[in-house]
Structures are given as structure tokens and as C-alpha cells.
Amino acid sequence: MSDSKTPAAADVAARLAALREQYSRRLSDDLQTLMAQARELSTRQTGVDVESMQTLRQGLHRIAGSAGTFGYPALSRDAREMELWVQTVIEEATQPTPAMLTALFDRLEDCYRQLEVGATPAVSEPGGSYDLASGERAIRVAIMADGDTETLMQALGGFGYDCRTLSAADAWADSAPDVIIVDTAKIAESAWKPAVASVPQATLIMLSASGDFETRLKAVRDGARGFFTHPIDVPSLEHRLRYLVNLPQQDPYRVLIVDDDVDLAEHFRLILKGAGIESRVIDEPRHVLQGLRDFVPDLVLIDINMPGCSGPELARIIRFDDDWLRIPLVYLSAESDTHRQAQALAQAGDDFLVKPISDIALVTAVTARAQRSRQLSLALARDGLTGLIKHPAIKELIEIEMSRSQRSHSEACVVMIDIDRFKSINDTYGHGTGDYVIRLLANLLRQRLRRVDHVGRYGGEEFVAVLPGCSLENAREAIERIRVSFSQLECVAAEQTFNVTFSAGIASTTGWADAELLLEAADRAMYEAKQGGRNQVRLAKPEA
Amino acid sequence: MKPLQRILHVEDDVSIQEVARVALEIVGGFEVSSCDNGQAALSQAAEWQPDLILLDVMMPGIDGPTTLAKLREQASTQAIPVVFMTAKVQPSEIEHYRAIGGLDVVIKPFDPMTLAEQLREIWERSDVG
């Protein structure tokens, strides 16, 4: 039998990841096409024909059947529900009203937005016990406000939360709410306290009429993790909800596990995987620097007793390098002597986890530290004006994508973009307008590129984009579309309207040996575009 | 029992085709051939003689059930077992695909890590092998 060969798991994962990237790009296009179809049908004067409905159905069916495989289970379910609706309309030969079609459009748009905001594709993990992090289902929110819950429920429902009033929460049967929102302005303490106590695992958010210190302190003592005063600012509330349930990160957290006990390390890896955290195991301390460079973790877990090199020694080696100063180093060991723990921490390292450790304790400790680490590096790496990634960080990303594409034999592209005649914009309209143009292009790039793409501000009016899993030709098409849109945008300053253009150069990872050469190639192509008359996109030709 | 080796995958969605190829070739170690419509499936099945055909239900042109009926009409493909793949709409439909001669039904979306195993189980459970 030919199935005896065991596939290299990494190989499979890399291929699947590449396919997933391709797929998410297509998914975004497909949703836009469906939105356009639904929009067009809703405005038709002549009534809707069956063929058009069939086309819609096919499109929805395709997403329903494929999105789940690529890690978008919620989208798959949404598409299936919409498909069923369209099917019913077709079968019953009814004429859908414009309002129904608009509702369909809205729902598609919701899906599209969620995709763009980047709910991380969750690799489905059968039996995984941390539903929240895997994004498998909607977050369940119970609201206690003595009947006056409609507005809030509607508002949060719009963000995709599954909202109920707590008295109706029994309908959740086997699954308690993840979050309870108590409006203390509307419901008495004697009523909400026992209800909240009955679901101890749920996160508590309090709404209150008063925002004074005493009230806040009381909320803290009652176990609240969020506190808002009336009138409720729904976006902030939603933001806090997201933060509390630790929902969409751009990418799963990454943890490097250094442990010579391969079985134990693998066990930890699986637990973390169940919580949506990616990890890589290194069983040989001397490979740790390579692992850090390849994997760029948010946190490193280090076994304290390893042959050849102890955990604290390894931690100090890692700390030699400025690049890894910000990464939390957490020891993992059977060491329960607090004095020796303190000694280990005094050398280097940030925390100590004692084995045996429960799954939940491990996940909690790792998540909290990884989150801080991620926030910190994001804050350090973002450009203040545009919110885009700064120069050094984007260069790092190019290196990561370069080695990733070499490993997985996939293609990635680097795009260098420079605003044309930027100096004359500054000179004519002032620096404020210059900044405005930069922000305009930054927003356009962020909007138009895929979630998986990285966009950075490289210099004054220069931008770099990294497009993983993307061929040179596809990159050209995408950037070309953005070029046309940008050139058509009307900028207004000092009561004058003007247009701005950019020139771009693109190079593919397949043509160049390392990140430095790749970036130079994109840069050269960009200069060719400038010399060719600006407002155009050029591709870098690989050396023979 | 003859081991399952060659699988013909018929699926109009190229993304799914590719991910299934990874799932069946690399994870499962099968020989895989794919095509994107029912008509091509008829000729490819006759020529390549797969052990099993994994057939998408809803395809433009000839759909899955019609393709199955046509496979049963031509002598060279009459006996090749067919497993349907479908985005489940209703349980009764799944029953229906079994009733019309599908060996079994694989539900979409599928998990690429377990698809091969699922097919192997279906193969071993049935008496065609």
C-alpha cells in the first residue's frame, strides 16, 4: 500500500498555508462579485429572472462548500444560509422584493467586511477546547438590563455577536454565555448578582449611570473587566468585548518552545494549538537563534534543565541580541524551589511556569504575555502618521516572506511605491496637504490589498508592500488597479482640486537570492517607472 | 481486499481541487487525478480507471448525480465506486445521494488533514475493495 510514507507535516502545512492565502484573495473577489450582483438585482425595474438567482446561488454554494476548508467556518455557514434562502426563492418561484435583495447585499457586505478586518482563518481543530480563540462560533453575550436591551442587542448583533437577555440564556442550553453585560442603572444588585455568580466563567462588563471613582472601584470588586457609563459608546464597548474575548488578532500568537524532552514539548505544542496559538519546538538549544529568526515568536518557553546549556544560560544568549530584547522569555520546569526560581530570573527571563502545569494555566500565562509582547512590538513598529508598518519592521517582514517562499516554494512579491512629484505638492499646498496625500494613499493601500499583505511606509513619500502567495502578474494587476484609482482621486487643498499619481516597481521572490536584492530590484523597477514618465507600474526583470 | 490507490477527483472549484490534491496525495499517499466537469470525468475515468471517483454534486454543466448515471451507462466505468462530495444542504439530500448509488457522501467543507482517512474508511467499510 502506498500510504505507508508519512508526509512531512511541515510540508503539508506550508502547502495548505499557501493555498489558503490564494483562496482568501479569491474569496474577497467572489464576495465583491456577489455583492455587485445582489446590488444590481435590487435596483432592477423589470423583475428578477431565475437565471440571475441561479448565478447567485452557485456563487454562494461555492463559498459555503469551500470557506470552511480554508479556515472560515463562520463564513461557510453564513453563505449556506444565504444559499438556502436563494434556493427557496427559486423553488417557490416567488419574486424577491428589492428590500429582500438589499438585505442579502447587506449580509454579504458584512461577510466581506469581516473578511477584510481579518478574522484570522482558524484551522479547525476537532475537539479543541478553546472555542473563543479559534473563532469557531459567535461570541455569546448575555445582557441584563431589565428588559431594556433591544438597542444594545441590535448594535452588538450587527458586529456578529450572539446576544440574548440573561433570562433567555437558558436557550444556550449546554453553552453558557462568554460575556455578561449588566446595566446597573436598570437592574438591582440583588437581581443580577446571583445570575452572574451562576456563570463564573463568563466575563463581566458593567454599564452604569455614574462614572465616579467609588462606582468604578465597586465594579472592580464585583469582578467587572469592562466599565462604561451611559450613554453607551457602542464602538468602545465592542472594542472592549473584542479585547476581552481575545478575538481577532492579525495572526495567531507564535511561541517557540525550547525543550529537550520532545514528547513533552509536543504535548505543549498541541495544547497551545488547541487555543489557536502557533508554536514551534526546538529540542536542541544551539538551534534557538535560527528558530528565532525563522519563526519570529511573540514568546519563548524555555526548559530550565537541558543538557549542554541550561535555560538561564540560553536566555542570556538570546538577550545578547538587541532584536530579541522585547520577547518575553518564560521558563518551564519542574523547579518548585522559589529561591532557585528567583536565581534563574535574576540572570535573564521574565517568568516561571512550574511543571506539571494545567492546560488552562499554560494557555492563560502564554496568551497574556504574548499579547503584551505583540502590542508592544506593534506600537514600536507603526508609523505615527499612517499607522503603517515602519521601515525596519517592513524590512524584517520582507526577510520573513523571502525565507518562507524559499522554504515552501511559493512566490511572494515586493512592491515599492513612490508618490510622483511629491515635493511640488508640498511646495504648492504646504506640508499639511502633503501629509494628507500620504494618508490618502496609505488608506487606499490598506483597503485594497489583502489581509495577508503587509504595507509599510518606507520613507517620506515611499511605501513598500509585501504580497505573500502572489505571482508577479497578479501583483501587477492589483497594483495597477490601485494606481488607476489613486490617480482618479480628487484631492482638495486651498479650494483647489488636484490629482496625484504614483510610480511603482514590483519584484518577485523567485527572481532574487535574498531580501536585500529583492528590495533593490523593486526599487530599480520603480525608478524605471519614474523615468518612463511616472504614473505607471514596472516589473523587475530577474538577472539571467 | 484491494487497497485504495487511485482517486479521480471531479470538482469545478479549482481551490478545492488543489487543497484536495494536497490532502489526498501528500497526506493520504494516493495517486490523484482531477478534472473540473462531469464530461471530462466520463472520459478520464474510462481512460485512467481509478479505484474510486470523488464527485462533487453541484457543478455547472452536468451535475454530480447525472455524471454518476452516465458513468453507470458506459461499460468501462460501470463498476467504479463513486463517493459524492457536497456542501450539505439537508440530511434528506444526503440520503438521496446514497440511494441513487453513491457509495457514501463526504461533507463540504472537509478537513484536509482527515479527508484521506475518511475515504480510506469508506473504502474499507464497503465491500467493493
From TrEMBL, chain A:
Glycoprotein found in the keyword field: no
Domain HPt: 19-118
Stated name of the protein: diguanylate cyclase
Domain of life per record: Bacteria
Domain GGDEF: residue ranges: 410-542
Chemical reaction(s) catalysed: 2 GTP = 3',3'-c-di-GMP + 2 diphosphate
CDD domains named in the record: GGDEF, HPT, REC
Pfam families: GGDEF, Hpt, Response_reg
From TrEMBL, chain B:
Presence of keyword Cytoplasm: no
Response regulatory domain mapped to chain residues: 6-123
Record-linked InterPro entries: Bact_response_regulator (IPR050595), CheY-like_superfamily (IPR011006), Sig_transdc_resp-reg_receiver (IPR001789)
PANTHER family linked to this entry: RESPONSE REGULATORY DOMAIN-CONTAINING PROTEIN, STRESS RESPONSE REGULATOR PROTEIN 1
Signal peptide positions on this chain: none
Gene3D superfamilies: 3.40.50.2300
Keyword annotations: Phosphoprotein
SMART domains: REC
Protein name: Response regulator
Protein origin, superkingdom: Bacteria
Residues modified to 4-aspartylphosphate: 56
Protein's UniProt keywords contain Phosphoprotein: yes
